[in-house]
Structure formats: C-alpha cells, structure tokens
Amino acid sequence: MLPDDFRAGVRAALPSLLGLVPFGLVAGIAAVNAGLSPFQAIGLSAVVFAGAAQLAAIDLLARDASLAVVVVTAVVINLRMAMYSASIAPYFESFRRRWAVGCSYLLTDVSYALSIAEFTDESGTDRRWYYLGVAGAIWAVWQLTTVAGVLLGAGIPESWGVGFAVPLVFLTLLVGDVSDRPRLVAALVGGSVAVVGATWPLNLGLLGGALAGVVAGVVVDGRDGGSDA
C-alpha cells in the first residue's frame, strides 16, 4: 500500500493535471508532424520531460535547426530549474544520492511550487514520498498524453495543418504567466527578438529571443527590487 504522504502529493497535483492533458497531446502531435518517428517522439518526451523546452526543441527540429541550437535553446528556457533546485535542495539533504538524482529528473514548475509550499509549512510530511506523489503524477500524465498525441499525430493528414497548435499553446502559457512587470518585459523583449530573428541563419531567432527575454526580465527585476529597498 502506498504511503499516505505519497497519496497526499497525488491529490495535491490533481487540479494541475487537467491543464496538462492538452499540453501533452499537442507535444506528441507536434513531434510527429515535425518529422520524428513515434519512437523518437516518445523518447524525446521521456528524456527531456520539460514542456516548454520540449515544444521549442520540436519547433526547431521541424525547421531543420542544428542540434547545437536545439540543445542550447532548451537549456536557456529551462534555466529557471537551477533556481528551483537551489531553493528545494536543502529539504532533500537527507536523501540518498540516487533518490536526489531521481527527484531532480522529476522537477517541474508545478512539482516545485506544490512541494515547497508543503515543506515550508513544517507539517511533518515525509518529504520524499510527498514529492514523489506530486512529481510522479505529473510525469505519468505527461508521458501518457504525449504517447496519445503521438498516436493521434501519426494518423492526422499533413493537410490539416495542425502545426498552429504549438504557438497556440505557447501563447496560452504566456498569458497565464505574465503576472508582473519583469515577466511582461521579458515576454515583450523575447518575443520581439524572436520575430525579428526569424530570418537569422541556423534558426537562431528563438535562441536569441530566449536569451534576450531572460536578460531583460532579470534587469527589470533587479531595478524594481532596488527601487523598493
């Protein structure tokens, strides 16, 4: 029987899983339409396990970008994970190394937010099992919906032009995430650079936009923080 804290983590993740389903379906469909085989698409989802970075990589692969550009773009988009790791690491100090490595693989925005809120509450929760409940549920739903998307995408004719779904998903994520001035500036600067850079060689527009957005957001956040002091 699964520990109570594991089940509590799964329950905490349930509301987020509903929004994850269409996202995973789009990722699977987009991967197939980008020219990846079903095996490659499923493997990409299992190895990368990072929604926004995964879709960005798929978009670049569809445009025949170099592997170096694809990898660097995905890394830049996922730089926030370094901050999440630094924040949550003290709560994992007692874990054995293999558990810590497994937990790092499962780290996402949602699993971090739900877990850190529970851990700072000092409620006596078994952190390992709670985290695995939250993050494991997210991982399972993402993989299953991606596989479903791959199977659906393999049967959808190219004439349907479902490629529009990728930018539509990004737009949905953007609207929900722009909650303060630094994020708004990051979105505007990053988006503008990516559009201007659409004709750059090696498909560097997306990478340039990601880097410019990160830098702009950090600069504005630093200025706002300084003005509050």
Explained architecture:
It is a multi-pass membrane protein. Its main location: membrane. It is found in: Cell membrane. InterPro entries: Brnchd-chn_aa_trnsp_permease. The protein is mainly alpha-helical and about 230 residues long. The chain folds into two domains: about 5-160, no CATH class; about 180-229. It has eleven helices and no strands. The chain has helices at about 5-35, 40-50, 50-60, 65-75, 80-90, 95-105, 110-120, 125-155, 165-175, 180-195, 205-229. Helix 1 runs antiparallel to helix 7 and helix 10 packs antiparallel against helix 11 (about 205-229). The longest helix has 30 residues, at about 5-35. The chain is globular, with a radius of gyration of 19 Å. The termini are far apart. The mean pLDDT is about 80.
